Amino acid sequence: MCGIAGIALNPNRTLPDLQERLLAIRDAMVHRGPDDAGLYISPDGRVGLANRRLAIRDLTPAGHMPMSNAEGTVWITYNGEIYNTDEIRPELERLGFAFRSRSDTEVILHGYEAWGAEVVQRLRGMFAFAILDLRGGKPSLFLARDRLGIKPLYYAQVDGMLLFASELKALQASGLLSREISPAGLVGYLMFGSVPNPWTIYEGIWALPPASTLTWQDGRVEIRPYWRLPADTVEPRSYEEAVEQVRFHLEDAVRSHLVSDVPLGAFLSGGLDSSSVVALMRRATSGPIRTCSIVFEEKDYSEAPYARAMAEAVGAEHYERVITAQDVLNELDNIFRAMDQPTVDGVNTYFVSKTAREAGLTVALSGLGGDELFGGYPNTFRGVPQMVKALHVAQRVPAASFLAQKAIKWFGLDERWRKVADALDRPASPASAYLVRRGLFSPSEVRALVTPEVWQAALQAFDPVAYVRERTDGHLDLFRWVSQVELRTYTHNQLLRDTDVMSMAHSLEVRVPLLDHRLVEAVLRLPEWVHRYGYGPKAFLVDALGVDLPLLVRKRRDKMGFSFPFGRWITNEMASFVSDTGALPMNSLSSLLVISEVQRLFRRKDVPWVRIWALSVLIRTLEA
Residue 515's closest CA among 80, 79, 52? Predict the structure, then answer.
């Protein structure tokens, strides 16, 4: 787990201080790699690679990056973990490659020498890497990102240069990029609570999409996808066969994710997903297991009894940290600094990562991905089909949207009805229903919050309904449609991005075995009836695990989610933080937002807390 960076100059472009600029990018990510740092500049001075290393596998100097082949003609800087190196390394050795380290970095390097761009098809894991190829006379770059977008990779093309790095703020440290806010990024954030990929909050800086590669040579850039979520269906002969198949992939995924040369443990919230991962860890190893939980004084938010029951069941060494509103207030500056770009989530991961690091862990497994694969979000898995039907019925009424808007005004209906009214202006579809169920501000509310110039510029690049619709592949039943959309919007744009930056703020590597691509493929190919077959939340996942969950966890019916009591804190202990934020001058946002409308929302008492938090985050991260 590391931070990577690079600068490549087009022909006839010079940058006398390339090394200094690259060092500024690299060392803005020291938290991503406190164990080692490296830099390489090509002989012609046109390309530079940099790395900050968090040593996980092969802790010796042999794992130093950027790493080269024996001839010094191919170089790599890499962030991530590859879990099938034991399969790939012997094949490469048979092809004549000699290894000088035990690192997975060298496996990717020689894999590229052997198979070129096709190396990404061989890799199982989470990764973002850049390979500089000096063979053939002209330097070329090959950048790649893992299938689910677990590891980040940002890039920009400006003034005859390509720049890339693991973090936006690191790229900004180069002094070569503008801090102009992206209209599409801003509008997307207000609609979803996170900036939608491939946009970022900054104009001209892009996120390389998941499952994509980027090649650069002589200033020309080409981006290609190399994998898609499966759209085909494989009908099992029985429910029992589906259970056995997924059980195999669950066990295989978690087992593969346990490889490490440093202390490894797990996040344990007490929910089904994290409990499943811990149960599978115990099934895969007889060694000690360490688990970490966040608990609250507010008992109705605390999952402590479930987490303790799970930890006791597997004999784990369990660490708990009680978090209060004051703890959050004390860490807010550090949290906003870690965010990289605005997001309504991530505070929970910040604190559980801090707890894990203080418990002596360098690697932690997470249950992230279980809700998306196994239908854990009632708001979308049940709510989207219900909303599609409701929209179809409502649109049979003449002037339905007009009447809905009038009803909102006359009867003072809450904010959720604005999303419905906006959806009635479009043909009823799963995409429009998803926006109603998952969206933060409705399109009409966002239009009122931003200036007309920002709104028009955003619409030229970003249509929210089209964006959601384009996140799926093929003709799918609604269960798998929602699963794909969740994986490619909420999971990728918010959960994975927040997990990366918040864990790396504490130099902690987080692994997500439930998003192992082989497991994802197996589950997404199953028809909807398999997921609807059993009783209770995520019954299919529970059945696939067998009897390893304690009864308290196995039989729980409430879906709590890994969330903080922000609704209470913002109106009590954190009220002064909110009021202070609303009173800030907002200089850089004054040309983007309708400040009077933003301040009106801060003054109102009936606005959902997540909207106030979203605006607070936006102001605090961009006005810092």
Answer: 80
Instruction: For CATH 3.40.50.620, list the domain ranges present in the chain.
Output: 239-369+500-554
**Given the DSSP bridges, would you call strands 205-207 and 212-217 parallel, antiparallel or unpaired?**
unpaired
What per-residue confidence (pLDDT) applies to 415?
66
Locate 403 and state its tokens: 């009447």
Among all chains, which residue has been given the structure tokens 């200094």?
Answer: 20
Residues 6+ apart with CB under 8 A from 180: 202, 203, 204
Tokens describing residue 566: 């922000």
Distance of CA 15 to the CA centre of its chain: 33
Pseudo-torsion of CA 555, 556, 557, 561, nearest 10°? -140
Q: Measured between alpha carbons, how far is 623 from 114 in angstroms, rounded to an integer?
A: 48
pLDDT at site 558:
63
pLDDT band at 252 (very low <50, low <70, confident <90, very high): very high
Query: Which among 369, 350, 343 has a CA at the least distance from the CA of 440?
Result: 343
Residues 6+ apart with CB under 8 A from 241: none
Cα gap 162→180, rounded to integer Å: 18
- As a whole number of angstroms, the distance between CA 207 and CA 166 comes to 10
Residue ranges, CATH 3.60.20.10, the chain: 2-225
Report whether pLDDT(559) > 70.
Answer: no
- Residue 337: CB atoms within 10 A of its CB come to 15
Query: What's at 456, amino acid-wise?
Result: Q
Beta bridge partners, 71, equal none
Region 188-210: mean pLDDT is 98
Which value, to the nearest 10 degrees, does the dihedral of the CA atoms of residues 530, 531, 536, 537 take?
160
Q: How far apart are the first and last CA of the chain?
A: 28
Round to whole Å and give the CA distance between 543 and 3. Answer: 39
Name the CATH superfamily, with its identifier, for domain 2-225: Aminohydrolase, N-terminal nucleophile (Ntn) domain (3.60.20.10)
In angstroms, the Cα distances linking 563 to 160, 265, 477 are: 44, 21, 30
Task: List strands edge to edge, sheet with 67-68.
Answer: 67-68, 74-82, 125-133, 140-145, 212-217, 220-225
Task: For residues 445 and 432, give the distance between their C-alpha atoms in angstroms, rounded to a whole number.
Answer: 16
For residue 145, the tally of other CB atoms under 10 A from its CB is 26
- Asked if residue 170 lies in contact with residue 51, where contact means CB atoms within 8 angstroms, the answer is no
Beta-carbon contacts of residue 84 (< 8 Å; ≥ 6 apart): 122, 123, 124, 125, 256
Q: Which CATH code fits 239-369+500-554?
A: 3.40.50.620
Structure tokens at 342: 């605005």
For residue 253, what are its two tokens?
A: 């995924």
Average pLDDT over the chain reads: 93
Contacts of 27 (CB under 8 A, 6+ apart): 37, 52, 173
According to the model, what pLDDT value does residue 137 have?
82
> Distance (Å, rounded) from C-alpha 28 to C-alpha 508?
17
Q: Which residues contact 158 (CB under 8 A, 6 or more apart)?
A: 176, 177, 178, 204
Annotated catalytic residue within 2, 123, 428, 618 = 2
Note if 292 is an active site residue: no
- Structure-token match 């970003």, residue found: 462
Two tokens at 153?
A: 């990779």
CA 83, CA 48: separation in Å to the nearest integer?
28
Q: What are the structure tokens assigned to 35, written together?
A: 């164990």
